[in-house]
Amino acid sequence: METKNVMIVGVGGQGSLLASKLLGRLLLGRGYDIKVSEVHGMSQRGGSVVTYVRFGEKVYSPVIDKGQADYIVSFELLEAARWTEYLKPGGKIIVNTQQINPMPVIIGAAEYPEDLAGKMRSAGIDLDAIDALSLAEAAGNAKAVNLVLMGRLSRYFDIPEEEWMAAIEASVPAKFLELNKKAFALGVNA
Fold first, then answer.
1. Judging by beta carbons within 10 Å of its beta carbon (0-12, 13-18, 19+), is residue 12 exposed, middle or buried?
2. What pTM does this model have?
């Protein structure tokens, strides 16, 4: 099996680390060789972050180069746009339609770009855009955006739901388990 590459991008504090650990645990359980990078970027709340998850028969490095990502899972629209050059031809971006203003926008030095989803689609990018924040809130907590997006990603993997649930159970504290399972299901079915 050829190596597959998933980038998880977002803003610090959104739960990208849990998402990458869950995905890594799931794929390791399937017998793949896995490399998961550390979170790169400003992991303090508000900074741009990226995590790489690579899996296959034998993986030698956790780093994904430009044009190699099979999937980019983005917690925010502008972050999806920042990383499009990493998407391989035929790859897919799964994006939360939420907009989080970066510091230049907050201080008035720039404006948030308009119609980013439309611009990415016009550039030929295969985009699966969902309102993951509303779905997370419907599940019971806005912080469950990460599980909504993992649920959406699961639609593109030929892995039984029971295995995803087992990975969630192994990754999430018991007191948040039902909420996270609900968020995952909402992402699958959105």
1. middle
2. 0.93
